[in-house]
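Morning!

This is the sequence you dropped in the shared folder:
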Amino acid sequence: MSFMLKTKNILVGLMLVIVCSYSIHGQGGFNLPRMDYDKIKFRLINNLIILPVEINGVELSFILDTGVSKPILFNITNTDSLQIKNVETIYLRGLGEGSQPIEALRSRSNFFKIGNALNINQDIYVVFDGSMNFSNRLGVNVHGIIGYDVFENFVVEINYITKVLKLHKPEEYKAKRCKKCEVFDLSFFNNKPYIESEVKIDSTFITTKLLIDTGSSDALWLFEDPSLGLIPYNQLFFDDFLGKGLSGNVYGKRSKVKSFKLKSFELNNVNAAFPDSSSLGHARRITNRNGSVSGEILKRFNIVFDYKNSKITLKKNSNFRTPFYYNRSGIILEQTGTRVVKEKEDRGRVGYGNKGANSTQIELQTHYQYSLKPSYSIVELRSGSPAEKVGLKVGDVILSVNGKQSYEISLQRIMEYFKNDIGKLIRLKVDRNGETMAFEFRLEDVFKQKKLSD
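The structure's back. Tokens below.
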């Protein structure tokens, strides 16, 4: 049986950890015909790796996510034909409030192409739930996620600085001598990689087993466990939206840890999120798992994944000493469609003046053109945040930030304004139900008011 999908802007969000309730056993795998390795350029958006992936002749964009076992497509709409074959209904489960499974289609025997790597017999899962519109928060078109099927067949090098993914045939790969590298053993559960690390929250280091999750933008997620000392640093935290899972929104506490160690590599004053227990569901039942290490930390290394030998090699790169910042405004934005923008365009017209045939004058004529531009709206507003205190509301459409038109800058660039230094002035113009309104506030220390004992 075959099935015709109409797809466009099938988007994936900031965080996604998938557990499939269906038994997954694919056949075949990716291969590099007549090549020992291949290089593929990727985009790095909000710490996420976005790759071009061709499915049954249609080119799409996928997040490379070590936290998923099989490729997943989201948010099917009504443009760009994509044909999939051999479909059956299954149920997927992931993080989110309630952690209820959602219905999806499983399709077998699809053709996948990533660079020159081919798989002629690839399973794929298709989710039709319209609320799974994760990637509005990335501000770029992303159609799905892919993980284990790439890593199981290749030695995978990720260079976060040059934004190049290198796929090696395992039998041809020869590791380079590297005195500044650290090699770690990987363990696996449900085809997902885990690594041992050390976290210092108070005065001592705690050994932790963490999922390596390239599909999350955060630095660390830690599961609260008072018996181990895994609680917010110095009892200092703020409540926040953490991301979207397959089963809904994930909320929790954001805090800091004094130190995070991977053998000799040590990072200080690291962002850490503690998701609510109601959002963890199935993930909490994984034996001895203490959380996840994700994009905000992983981008500080160039990485070699060798699943066949259960190894990962890390070498710190120029991102290593970059400070960890939090969103101090309290605003979470999404790209919520487009809006019509009137833009002025000055055109010069050359003509003869009144001073003789040898003189000319240039007359500027003003024209206007209308075009569709991205529209960014407030979708989450942290209680007690600077933005909320000055009267901003969920649903406000951002028109300008510190004098710059919002449509002239990317969604991620706008969010970077909100991670600036304490005391930085933020000036916003917004559209609220057709009325233009102006607001300004200063960024505040997110930890100055909230303590666990409050």
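Headline: Residues 152 and 308 are 7 Å apart (CA to CA).

More detail when I'm at my desk.
O.
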